[in-house]
Amino acid sequence: MEQNRTVAVLGATGYIGGRLVAALLERGWNVRAVGRNPEKLRCRPFAAHPNVELVQADALDQPALTDALRGCHAAYYLVHSMYPGVKNFEDRDKRAAMIMRDAAREAGLERILYLGGLGDTDKDLSEHLKSRMEVGEILGSGPVPLTWLRAAMIIGSGSASFEILRYLVDRLPLMITPAWVKSLCQPIAVTNVLEYLVGCLEHPETSGRTMDIGGPDILSYRDLFDIYARVAGLRPRIIIPVPVLTPRLSSYWIQMVTPVPSSLSRPLAEGLRNKVVCRENSIRELVPTRLLGCEEAITRALDRTVRHEVETCWSDAGLQRVPEWIDCGDAPYAGGTVLESAHTLTLAATPAQVWNVIVRLGGDEGWLHGNWMWKIRGVADKLIGGPGLRRGRRDPEELRVGDALDFWRVLVVEENRRLRLLAEMKLPGEALLQFDIDEEDPGRTRLTLRARFLPRGLWGMIYWYPLIPVHGPLFRGMLTALARKIGGKILFGPVTPPKEGSQCRL
């Protein structure tokens, strides 16, 4: 079996790279995760896996890259330079591809696998798609065989193209669009992209081949807007095509409406004019898999339907899907704008003493402060079809992942360190409540309470902001009441902590 050999993933902290590492590990491969930033590598969920090796290397540093590839059977090349602060990304990508081609030869790689963009080479391609084509041609010009997969729009929470779609439809009930709204594309679910990437590694006959990958549906971008609105539970959007509005001009309002950085949104917007449809489907025979239709892929990306099906089923609680937007390492714009209310205090207690009180919250114990507010919210939730507060908790002293806790679902239980709860109340978005415990010194512990909310549409934004004056007193009061229940003197706080960086959302 080749799985006992090592495969390198360049760009392991990226959207596809991070998910690919996890998929390869699940299939039994030894993985060398390569990235420029060691902190981001250590932040990824796969970092502690016994079969993964974290290696720092820059794609523009040939000696370091060659060393990173030595001893590997194959390498995935998932690198691009479209990020803030970089000008002429095309030139950087060309240089990086040349370095990769030469490093692969020197390191003795047997294969390179590359995921690029889909587009008709006979037409006037955007700079982004043209660059993706050039990278593939450079990688394939060396002696190491290249497997080149060409994809159009990837549907998954965190994909830049999908996030642009999400923000536009969520925030704009009426859109004035250029002619590209009628352009055809063949989106593919991120699940299928990962299956193809892993499948090509495990099917040697794909070596040296260039193959288009796409889902079963060929749609216009207008069709995508309609499908997204329907799946997200939004009213149909009014779309008015205007021929004089060019893709470049549209990139400016995309930049204003979405938080996707212009270094990404502008090249992607200019590429919308290109028809991106598979010209051949040979991979479907070489790597058979069930392709997800566009509607199913969007449903999975929004990550609501499956989770709601199990919200009151105790025996199936383990089937719960963790929202993709909390994935550590995703880009800051991934999954939507995450709004946060956070408060922290330091008290004279051990982490175990703090944990023993936090793990008993909810149910008959209540939430220690503002219980009347929690009860009003529970009654309101019940009236509109939510679970309300009466579910209580399974056990008064123990919490397990998947447990119902009033109108929350337990996502993470890390004893003496972290409790993370997912809201199952009726909301115009998704909400998390998290307790973090950090020991500063023996007998001195910092307790942080974070509420995070991913709004859906304008109603989600309207819902959140009026609650800000309520959240502050409520959460500060909860922390003070927790300290009193713990019996530890408050040494500092409660205060609002500095915002976390974008590498790890939670």
Automatic annotation (TrEMBL):
CDD domains, per database record: SDR_a2, SRPBCC
Pfam families membership: DUF2867, NmrA
Domain of life: Bacteria
InterPro entries reported for this sequence: DUF2867 (IPR021295), NAD(P)-bd_dom_sf (IPR036291), NmrA-like (IPR008030), NmrA-like_oxidored (IPR051164), START-like_dom_sf (IPR023393)
Gene3D superfamilies: 3.30.530.20, NAD(P)-binding Rossmann-like Domain
Key words, A-Z: NADP
Segments forming domain NmrA-like: 4-165
Family: Belongs to the NmrA-type oxidoreductase family.
PANTHER family: NITROGEN METABOLITE REPRESSION PROTEIN NMRA FAMILY MEMBER, NMRA LIKE REDOX SENSOR 1-RELATED
Protein name stated in the entry: NmrA family protein
Species name: Desulfomicrobium baculatum (strain DSM 4028 / VKM B-1378 / X)
Organism lineage: Bacteria, Pseudomonadati, Thermodesulfobacteriota, Desulfovibrionia, Desulfovibrionales
